[in-house]
Amino acid sequence: MTRHDEAARTALRQALRVRQLASVEPTDPICVFDAADRLGLEVKFCPEKSLAGMYAKFPRGVILISTHRPPGRRAYSCAHEIGHHVFGHGTQVDEYLENAEHPERTLPEEWLVNCFAGFLLMPLPAIIHAFKRRAWSPATCTPLQAQIVAGNLGVGYGALLAQMSRTFNLFASDRYEQLRRTTPKEIRQQLLGRTDSPHLLIVDRRWNSKVAADAEVGDTIVLPMDAHVEGNVIKKMCDCEQGDLMIAVRPGIARVEIVSEDFATFIRVSRRAYTGRNMFRFLEDPDGNDLP
Question: What is the Cα–Cα distance from 213 to 276, expressed in whole angstroms?
Fold first, then answer.
């Protein structure tokens, strides 16, 4: 067994332990920001552009996440910083790098927490379960299917593809390269006929409601056409091929329900580029300001 194999096994064990401490099953998605709260860590979002994430050990465990990164990247950075906490690495500052180093050149400590982050967010049972509940096959998935699953797991499209291919060998390398060539921007264009939305979240009728669907003001959300929405944080724009196209217009929480299928979940909306403590991220705007 190589050193990397041993580190990967250690990372997997610790990721499953953290999921257990956070009361999250291996088959379910995890909101790492909420999980950090359950672990006694405080998560704060900050406006530093050069920062990916930071873990400060003293006086209490605090994680800083740059609000300038895409949603999936923020989740990965938070999971990464939880890894530094779990492995007792002490205070760490992780800069944002546009072109990250090759994994084999990464410092052992960073490689370990990268593995941990991947296993925490995307363990094999969670990936398999997400595809199975939709009657899809990981080996033959389409870009749109991968995007939907990535959204439900709270990770980026590229991160999910890398985990499926490089870590779990769920499809061949040529299939991985083929899927990578289709970008989330192109998926938005194909689905909506436009790319101006900062982020697209597709909440289908097989969404695992163990986690809420988290968005920011201005994001677009696709819901099933027969879904009923309670709350005023999102509003309908138009119909699209996949269902009702909604836009997040104000911070707060909405409940989505499909009565005929006994399906319900929550959509949580934060301010765009929110800065502050995670626990206040979805508080309603006291001034009641909607997206213009």
Answer: 20
pLDDT of residue 2: 80
Euclidean distance between CA atoms 249 and 247, whole angstroms: 6
Residue 286 domain-assigned (yes or no): no
Residue-number span of the structural domain to which 220 is assigned: 197-280
Read off the CATH number of the domain in which 248 is found. 2.60.40
The tokens for 82 are 């939880």
As averages over each run of 10 residues, the pLDDT of the chain (292 residues) reads 85 97 97 95 94 87 94 96 94 70 65 96 98 96 97 97 96 92 91 78 95 96 95 92 92 94 94 95 78 57
52 within some domain: yes
Nearest to 27 by CA among 159, 124, 109, 93: 124
Please tell me the predicted confidence (pLDDT) of residue 290: 67
